[in-house]
Design goal:
Elements lengths: L1 H21 L13 H12 L6 H15 L5 H15 L1 H6 L2 H26 L10 H23 L3
Length: 159
């Protein structure tokens, strides 16, 4: 019963990240919107890789594809890659100082954006401006706050 209870609380954190991601924002301010799902997927993949993983990230990515109206599998693949990269490096990432963790988050947020951009470009030729990549930096800068909040949340649900 406890494992199911913890699973539901973890999924609630994914739902919060999902809601923050699809929340409407002015098109002028969209470039500063952090990649909330990348933060959530990276945190749970680093700190509890046995409870959440690639399949969880893939399912939430599919839900994100449906909610945003993108082609099926674009966000699913990019979030699964974020989860995979976090899981294979989770022991090292836990020991890294905060600035190195922030650099890693910047890299995987960039990977998420790059994969999404390339897959969208297959269907509809688009060009990325500098502001398309700004959210990776914002995501990186939010990581310390997200890390603090998620650790507090994890202690509250006793994982």
């Amino acid at each position: 019963m406890v494992a199911r209870h913890q699973f539901l609380w973890v999924q609630l954190s994914f739902l919060i990240g999902f809601s923050l991601t699809i929340m409407p924002i002015s098109s002028d301010m969209e470039f500063i919107n952090p990649q909330w799902m990348v933060l959530i997927v990276a945190y749970w993949s680093i700190y509890t890789p046995d409870k959440t993983g690639i399949v969880t990230a893939w399912v939430w990515g599919l839900l994100l594809d449906v909610a945003l109206g993108t082609h099926m599998g674009i966000h699913a693949l990019s979030l699964a890659l974020v989860s995979y990269m976090s899981i294979i490096l989770y022991l090292r990432l836990r020991m890294y100082p905060l600035w190195q963790q922030m650099f890693f988050i910047w890299l995987i947020a960039g990977l998420d954006k790059l994969v999404s951009f390339q897959l969208m470009n297959v269907f509809i030729p688009i060009s990325a401006q500098w502001d398309y990549w700004t959210s990776t930096l914002i995501t990186c800068l939010i990581w310390p706050f997200a890390l603090f909040m998620m650790k507090w949340y994890q202690q509250k649900i006793r994982m």
